[in-house]
Design a protein that fits this description.
alpha/beta, Rossmann fold, 12% strand, 40% helix, 264 residues, binds NADPH dihydro-nicotinamide-adenine-dinucleotide phosphate, seven-stranded parallel β-sheet
Length: 264
């Protein structure tokens, strides 16, 4: 991939979405019921997107659906797609694809946000079934969902796929086990898909590392950390919207950080 000079200047974290930036765009968010997925889904809706909320806990998805409905007139109604990425089989993926095809006829954006942390322990001690679960949800399910949805992404004039990485997705760290390995794999999946789609389709494929964010997953990883010291998911959505929408036209195969590096 050869990013152009203008694409090298692109800084998603500086992006402030316009009111109707996503008008007429159908965007699917995995893990939309909580954390970063919820915050991005709400801001996509505020920017006019038809948001497809995918997740495993229907109660949480219904909560986000209701929050979107309360945003007021002019905000398109969201749809809910219950899918447990750990247990889903081929027929479930086909049903999801069919539901999206019937309602929207295409897909303009796909955010792979759902993930499992697993356990933090040494490779020595890592429980094999947990390793497999984490790899399945974080990597295999993202691959299968993407593969299933590619025809609908190709039906869009201007489609985006955004994967989610982590600081441990490029540099391994002791005790981060399957989570770190899975994020390396997702970085690879992004590069392969970006290379395959570049030049041959209007689909662009990028990856974002949100950095430290105040969510349940972060609490699980760092239980004694002061929550107030962490940025909220709501403060980082600009980067996501830039990469999921028209602002990132021409940008593919790139990795972005949602937060500015710390000084010093
Ligand atoms: P959360 O734990 O708050 O959210 C994770 C989401 O994934 C939840 O909505 C969860 O659903 C969903 N999910 C988990 N397992 C499944 C499954 N089997 N099927 C469907 N959905 C599932 O974490 P964050 O918001 O922090 O994480 C979002 C992304 O950001 C992840 O990819 C994470 O790796 C990444 N990230 C986060 C960082 C942070 O500091 N928070 C740092 C670096 C990366 P449910 O609510 O039902 O459990």
């Amino acid at each position: 991939m050869n990013p152009t000079t203008s694409s090298l200047d692109f800084q998603p974290r500086m992006h402030t979405p316009a009111a109707d930036e996503f008008r007429g765009r159908a965007v699917l968010v995995t893990g939309a019921g909580s954390g970063i997925g919820r915050a991005v889904a709400l801001d996509l809706a505020r920017a006019g997107a038809e948001v497809i909320l995918l997740g495993r806990t229907v109660r949480k998805l219904e909560g986000v659906h209701a929050e979107i409905a309360k945003l007021g007139a002019g905000v398109p109604e969201a749809s809910i797609v219950p899918l447990d990425l750990e247990r889903a089989v081929a027929a479930d993926y086909e049903a999801v694809t069919e539901a999206i095809r019937t309602r929207y006829g295409r897909l303009d954006g796909l955010l792979h946000n759902a993930a499992l942390l697993g356990v933090l322990t040494s490779i020595d001690q890592y429980d094999v079934p947990t390793f497999m679960r984490v790899m399945h949800v974080n990597v295999t399910a993202a691959f299968v969902l993407t593969q299933q949805l590619l025809p609908l992404l190709r039906a869009s004039q201007d489609a985006t796929v955004l994967f989610t990485s982590s600081g441990v997705g490029q540099r391994g760290r002791a005790y981060w086990g399957a989570y770190s390995v899975s994020k390396f794999a997702v970085e690879g999946l992004t590069q392969v898909l970006a290379h395959e789609t570049e030049g041959s389709s209007p689909i662009r494929v990028n990856i974002i590392d949100p950095g430290r964010v105040r969510t349940a997953m972060r609490r699980q990883a760092y239980p004694s950390e002061a929550q107030e010291s962490l940025p909220t998911a709501e403060s980082l959505t600009g980067s996501y919207l830039a990469l999921l929408g028209p602002a990132s036209r021409g940008i593919t195969g790139r990795r972005f950080e949602a937060q500015a590096p710390k000084a010093g």
